[in-house]
Amino acid sequence: MLFGKKNKKEADKLEVNKKYLKKSLEYNIKSFKNIFNNDETLFVRRFKMPTMEQLECCIVFIEGMIDVDVVNRNIIQPILKNKFSMEYEPLEALQNHVITSHKIEKATEMDPLIEGILIGNTVLMLEGISEALIITTKGFKFRDIAEPPSEKVIRGPREGFTEAFMTNLTLLRRKIRTPKLKFKFLTLGTQTNTKICICYLEGIANEKILAEVEKRIGNIDIDGILDSGYIEELIHDSPLSPFKTIGSSERPDVVASRLLEGRIAVVTDGSPNVLTIPFLMQEYFQSNEDYYSDFIFASINRILRILGFLITISVTGVYVALTTYHQEIFPTPLVLSIGAAREGVPFPTVLEAIILLFIFEVLREASVRMPDAIGQTMSIVGALVLGQAAIDAKLFSAPMVVIVALSGITALIVPRFKGAIIVVRLLLLFASAFLGLYGFVFGILLILIHLFGIRSFGIPYMLDYNSLNFQDFKDTMIRAPWWYMRLRPKFIAKSNNQRQSNKKGGGRKS
Amino acid sequence: MRRADRFLLAFTIFVMVSLLTGCWNYREIESVSIVAGAAIDKENDEYRITLETIDIQAGKEANLKSEIFEAKGKTVFDAIRNVIQISGRRLYWAHSKIVIISQEIAEEDIWKPLDFFLRDGEPRINTNVIISKEKTAKAIYETEKSMETIKSLEIYEGITNQTSLLKAPNIELYNFVNDLAAKGKSAIFPVIGVVTNNNKKKFQISGTAVFKKNKLVGFLDDEETKLLHYILDRAKGGLLVGKEISKKDEGIALEVFEYGTTTKIKPEPKDDELSMKMDVYITAAIAENGERKALITQEEINRFRKEVEEAIEENIKALIEKVQVEYGSDIFGFGSAVKADIPKTWKSVENEWDEIFRLLDVKVKVHLKIANKAKVSQPIKIGD
User: In terms of CA atoms, which chain B residue is nearest residue A328?
Assistant: First the structure.
């Protein structure tokens, strides 16, 4: 089956490859129209040069994909107004003397012509010549560069990637102006023909990881890539793990900083999310703002995030374990007030926790999907009806609502975890409900074994967390000051580790 | 490892983890009766236990009410289980604060009722055990309640607040067990009684119950208990006042500080004779000087200090003598001091320590340091 499919595809390609332009303009136009059968966005414009009436010209493009001004001013106008006699070979003459465009290519096969038209270029053909020019005229509308709403900062650059491929690459190039920044292009998706770019810094990025990335991306065989998420899921390690092993960011400064650390970036056409490889556990807790604000504040924030993560996964489990197995651990007044709040509540504590967590997740998901106009309704329903009224009606106990709210709020400190938090939280909740603190500890062990077991493109996921060397500590639990971070993270940047020169206090003086 | 093997291994571990864990004790917090305290009496060869549980009443504002249950049994645990007949709910002991034991049981054998509280998983080893001076221990629960609605918590507060009073020792179960098991030290417990205050029957925590081995042999009163705290190095505050610090019984009060107040006991073997040397260091401030005693110059202060030191020395000596003669129970831990300092000597005296203790010579030296005179440096001169 698989074999047959592949054969057929190759046959398809051959058929297209076989097609070359003919000398007859009429025939060429017809073959274009055949290929774009039933596609009325294809536009063909025919005209004649004033000096050579017999030489008919024709431009082919797709409406909406081109910049109309460019086509009018730089192609049609010069051709119609030129006064040269046909001393030269006409196509050469047009390319070298008439058309004012920065990029013109010649082609004789149909394949590159069609591709050119599809990405917004204009094809110019002449009567009696079996060659054509592909003139770059791309000019479609795309979103302006703006601050990505998912990664807002108070301090730091505010530009974000857009859906436009070249703009995104420009944004990266503008951050790192060195010829060592390499961009390797690929096309993925048998139907969408999406452009992919693998970016890396030569001499810093680890070649082995680069080779692995290229190999895995090369193995992708899918009909369409609509977002970088497709690629992420197709190539990442431990596919069933709730934890991400490939990073993504909408900010050029974040991607640039990861490139400088020796990571590899994958830019996908049509997606503002740029993938960075490899991705380690510690990156969940890092924010680009950490590196722009002073290191004390940044370290406090980072510790807060780690604490937030620990609280959000464990607080419901610990609460259930303590109130149903280890009541002796509370101070007496606390056990009495929890007992008083629980009095009359029909559900067991575990069920209470699960229902409330479910409601919280429903509210969270609803608030992302709903139109802004009905946002108020939801906050009223969520806060008043579900919160206050449910306690008054003795459906849930107040401490449980507090615990679930705490768990929900702290999850928002580390929004990048997404599904991982929900899965881990539930796992710990079930383990605690089943075996008390004993089960909770087993759940934690299970998660730690998993985290220490997985790798991202060959790099241990929990890199530096089990190290006792202070240099390794510099960017995990805290953000060390810049003058201390002289080295790039180990393993990731293998060949060129030095980040700052070893001159004493060099960084501080300037 | 094959995939199936791996799965089997994981499954086996999961089953073992969940089944080999001992007690399965899932219980909802509101389904248990939380015991606050208990009183144990003996009646016709049976133990009678009087329990106070905390009854949570749900409502807009949670109400805590105490409920008293009573049951009899062949042993204490038997009696406790019998309570379920009346209460309907399982009792939960982990938050129990106090156990009151009647004098009668204490004189016979205190360990019989206490064994359960040390052995069982739920009761804490820092439960406060108190000896009732009344006829029964139950009588304490028949007194009137004051501010707090749970009597046991009230008594517990009373015991823990003794640190600024020192009129009853704050002895928790494990202290007692340690002393009981130790060689060269006898155990004590605080004492509780009933008094009439403002025409209401109230409990009063005062004094010390002195044990010899596992039997109650006598009591020490308030003042003696206070001095006992200094000997045991448990004094963490409190006042020294009146006869305790002067023969003339002046109206001067000293407030003792926790820091700089300590006691050191050292055995001094001389030839064949064993004697103890006790240094009591007290740091205190003058808290009251109603006599308007002149305490300005260094000389005056030194004279006053000497007086106080002598008075305390004498009082401590009198207390030690009383215990030696009347009870013969080494509650001061002289024996364990000997054991720690000169273990060789201890081995030779271990068996006849009872006799040696009764005749032991103790040299007491008090070192008082007057830290300050609070806010008033000079005595007030009364004008016309």
Answer: B94
Cβ proximity of A105 and A134 under 8 Å:
yes
CB B95 within 8 A of CB A335: yes
Are B21 and A438 in contact (CB < 8 Å)?
yes
Alpha carbon of B118 to those of A113, A330, A419, B52, B178: distances in Å? 90, 20, 47, 19, 12
Cβ-nearest to B30 among A332, A339, A436: A339
Q: B53 or B25: whose pLDDT is higher?
A: B53
What does the block give as tokens for A8?
């057929």
The secondary structure of chain B in percent helix, strand, coil, rounded to multiples of 5, reads 35, 30, 30
Q: What is the pLDDT of residues B208-232, one digit of tens each?
A: 999 998 999 999 998 899 999 999 9
Nearest CA-CA partner of B131 in B245, B196, B215, B53: B215
Report CB contact under 8 Å: B56, A343. Answer: yes
Give the span between the Cα atoms of B124 and B70, in whole angstroms. Answer: 21
Q: How far apart are CA A248 and CA A273, in angstroms?
A: 6
Which residues, other chains included, contact A389 with Cβ-Cβ below 8 Å and sequence gap of 6+? none
pTM for the complete prediction? Answer: 0.82
Measured between beta carbons, which residues in chain A are less than 8 angstroms from residue B63?
340
Residues of A in contact with B125 (CB under 8 A): none
Residue pair B360/B277 in contact by the 8 Å Cβ criterion = no
Question: Each residue of A462-481: pLDDT tens digit?
Answer: 887 877 777 777 788 888 88
Using an 8 Å CB-CB cutoff, list chain B residues near A323.
28-29
Q: Which pLDDT does position A1 carry in this prediction?
A: 40
> What ipTM goes with this model?
0.79
Cβ atoms within 10 A of the Cβ of A499, count? Answer: 16
How far away is chain A from the Cα of B3, in angstroms, using its nearest Cα? 16
Strand B188-197 and strand B128-132: the pairing is parallel
pLDDT at site B61: 64
β-bridge mates for residue B38, sequence order? B51, B99
Residue pair B79/B64 in contact (Cβ under 8 Å)? The answer is no
Task: Specify the pLDDT at position A76.
Answer: 87
Q: CB contact, 8 Å: A344 with chain B?
A: yes
pLDDT digits (tens, 9 = 90+) for B268-326: 888 778 899 999 999 998 888 877 777 778 888 898 889 889 999 999 999 999 999 99
Residue A143: C-alpha distances to residues A147, A164, A267 (Å): 11, 8, 17
pLDDT higher than 80, residue A133: yes
Nearest-CA neighbor of B108 among B220, B217, B221, B219?
Answer: B217
By Cβ distance, the residue of A324, A328, A340 closest to B58 is A340
Chain A positions touching B96 (Cβ under 8 A) are none
The percent of residues in chain B predicted with pLDDT above 70, rounded, is: 96
Measure in Å the smallest separation between the Cα of A467 and chain B Cα atoms.
29
Nearest CB partner across the interface for B26, out of A325, A335, A345 = A325
What sign has the CA pseudo-torsion B210, B216, B222, B223? negative
Structure tokens at B182: 């130790």
Pick from A186-200, A215-229, A481-495: least confident: A481-495
From residue A401, alpha-carbon distances to A324, A340, A385, A388, A426 in Å are 16, 15, 13, 9, 16
Lowest average pLDDT, out of A188-192, B26-30, B363-367, goes to B26-30
* Contact status, residue B360 vs residue B274, Cβ threshold 8 Å: yes
Q: In this structure, what token pair is assigned to residue A246? A: 């490939």
Residue with tokens 């009359």: A344
Cβ B26–A340 below 8 Å, yes or no? no
What is the least distance, in Å, from the CA of A123 to any CA of chain B? 58
Instruction: Tell me whether residues A324 and B26 touch, CB distance under 8 A.
Output: yes
A372-391 per-position pLDDT tens digit: 777 778 777 777 777 778 88
